[in-house]
Structures are given as C-alpha cells and as structure tokens.
Amino acid sequence: MSNESKRERSDAVRNRRAILEATDALLAEFGADNVSIEQIAAAAHVSKGTIFHRFGNRAGLMRALVFDRATALRDAVVSGAPPLGPGAPAADRLLAYFDAMFRLVVDNVELMIAYDDAAEDPHAEAIHAFWYGHIAALLSEARPDADAEVLSRVLLSSVNGELVLHHIRTDQTERLAETIHDLVESVVTHRH
Amino acid sequence: MSNESKRERSDAVRNRRAILEATDALLAEFGADNVSIEQIAAAAHVSKGTIFHRFGNRAGLMRALVFDRATALRDAVVSGAPPLGPGAPAADRLLAYFDAMFRLVVDNVELMIAYDDAAEDPHAEAIHAFWYGHIAALLSEARPDADAEVLSRVLLSSVNGELVLHHIRTDQTERLAETIHDLVESVVTHRH
Question: Which residues bind DNA (chains A, B) (predicted)?
C-alpha cells in the first residue's frame, strides 16, 4: 500500500470514529428526534457528504452506532474488567451482562425495534450468536443442570425491545431493570 | 323476544359451536394448510355461507378459534380443577398455568404471530389483561418480595410466538417447554 493510500485509510478510520462519537454525544444530549446530520457533521469536523458517503443515510448511521455500542459491550465481555469480563464467578458475570445488555437496549430501543423489522443482516446475526454463546457458556457453569442453550434464548428474549419500550413509555424502566436482574438471579441461584 | 327469534339465536349459538369444534378437530388431524372451508362446513353440517356470514373470512374463523381456546384456558383458571384452577398453592398454580399457556401458544403459533401483527383488538386486550392479573396475583403470594406486576409481563413474554416458532421449527419444542417450566420454578422458589 502506498503512503498516500495508507493515509487515506487512516483518515477514513478517524472520520468514522469521530462521526460515531459525535452522534453518540449529540443523541445523549438532545435525543434522536432533535439531532440533524448538519449538527453531527459540524461536531465531527467533517462534511455532510462524508457522512452520507460512509453510512448511506441517517438510518445507516444509526444502525452503525448501535453496532458500535454492541461491539463495545462484546469487547468488555471478552477482555474487560470483571464482573462483566473474565475473572468473576459465572453467576456474577451473568448478572453483570444482563444489566449491561438491558442498558444497551434501553439506550437504543427505538433503533433496535426499527432494526428488528429490517431484513436479516450477517453482522446482527454474528453478534446475536456471540451473546447466546456467552450466556450459554456461563449458564453451563452456574446451572449445570439446566438446558443452557435454550435457556440463553429465553433469558435474552426477556430483554426485548417491545417490552423495554412499554416500560420506558410508562415510566417503569427501573422497575423492569430490577425485575430482569431478579429473574437472572433466580435462575443462577436455583437448585433442584 | 319471540319464540321464533329465541330459536334463531339458539341455532346461531349451536352453529358457532359446531363450526369451531369442526375446525379444531380438522386442524388437529390435517394441519392448517390442508383444511378447506368446504371441509369445515361439511363436518359442522352448515353451509359455507353460514361460516362466512358468521366469521367474515378464513382469518376471522381462525382468530375466533384462538379466542375460543384462550377462553377455555381462562375458564379452567377461574373455575377448573387444581392446580390450574383454585385450591392449589400459588407456586403450583403458576407452573400449571405456564405449562398450559405454552401448549396454547404451540398449538396456535402461526395464528398468534399473524394476529400479533394485526391492529389492537379489545377482545385480545381483555384476555391479555386477564393473564397479567392472574400471574401477578399468584406471584404476589408465591414471591411477596418481587415486583409482581412487572414480573408477570417479563414471564409471559418468555412464551412469545417468535421464540416458540423457532423451537418448533428446529425440533426443540419439548426442550423449550422444560426450560420455561424450569424458569418459572426458579422464580417461584427464589428466596432473597
């Protein structure tokens, strides 16, 4: 690769990161309905054209942001600090994972519901497969008597967008957070 | 009401019952894709016109059948034999209810997924409200420390059509049945 194309590629990586970080910060401050592509471009010091070139459209940018956050959670699970990362007992890691996953869904619930309706996506399927594998591996340790594979699907379905959205809209988000925590705790401490 | 209109009304009730029972029996024997309105009419000893007059179309008939089955489960819960009906400990009644609800979803999964997509229906809302109230009342007894209202929604969402359909299609229906039973058992036996 020439020095020039290397520099172009590293510019592209830097721009992508700057755009996603600017989007994240602006959404947190103003909410999804009140952030324009113009504002994002200005905050990331890029042109609107760069954003559309890289992400296609607004929906593409939002999808990329959700994947970026999901990838950050995956990294924390694989190599971050315990109890989310390795080094804590399986039951504690499961509780930390479901708490973190719940926050990820709460913060992205409108995007996730919109995205669930979209066609199947290999990127989304890969990350779902990773979650199921992670939960099932920890369940096998914490609950060797249970059917870890099926139970991982049942537990993760309890953090579904429709249920989360209902509780956000009725101002019961923290009640749902505590209930899902309680559910996972019931499962990991159950003894036949 | 004249004797004539009383007789007409009791004929209508009898026809409705005969049509639903014939549909139920034929679906169980041949599967939803292999049963025609003609076969149902013949088995129920009514005309095709009577079926369309009463249920609108095929989808309307299938929806009525699901409600008929849901109403039968509600009756069993309100006034049937324990452990589904009154008279058993709350934990046993919850386990019996989720087992029965799981079978109801399994037997009607394609219809339920189609129906979930439909517009909101007061009949469907009433029966959902009844399920939530029933589960929450029993949870309040079995798990006085838990948030019964939110937990009833989380637990019932674990018996969702998409999850059930995935397990039917991958020949894991009984594994899912056992896992949901295990989940409810974990919840009702959990102690802080």
Answer: 36-55
- Please give the residue of chain B at the shortest CA–CA distance from A167: B150
**Long-range Cβ contact pairs of A104-107 (< 8 A, separation 24 or more):** A104/A69, A104/A70, A104/A73, A105/A159, A105/A160, A105/A161, A105/A164, A106/A164, A106/A168, A106/A173, A106/A177, A107/A69
CA distance B48 to chain A (A): 37
Contact A176 B154 (CB under 8 A): yes
CB contact under 8 A, B150 and A183: no
Separation in Å, CA of A79 to nearest CA in chain B: 30
Asked if the model's pLDDT at residue B119 lies above 60, the reply is no
Q: In chain A, what residues touch B162 (CB-CB under 8 Å)?
A: 157
How are the residues of chain A apportioned to helix, strand and coil, as percentages rounded to the nearest 5? 80, 0, 20
The ipTM value here is 0.86
CATH of domain B1-56: 1.10.10.60
What would the pLDDT profile of B41-86 be if each residue is shown by its tens digit? 999 999 999 999 999 998 889 889 989 999 999 999 999 999 999 9
Given an 8 Å threshold on Cβ–Cβ distance, is A157 in contact with B153? no
Q: Judge whether residue B4 has pLDDT over 80.
A: no
In whole numbers, what is the pLDDT of chain B averaged over residues? Answer: 91
The answer to whether the Cβ–Cβ distance between B157 and A154 falls below 8 Å is no
Q: How confident is the model at residue A167 (pLDDT cuts 50, 70, 90)?
A: very high
Candidates A150, A179, A180; nearest CB to B176: A150
Instruction: Give B137's contacts (C-beta < 8 A, 6+ positions apart).
Output: B148
User: Domain residues of chain A, as ranges?
Assistant: 1-56, 59-189
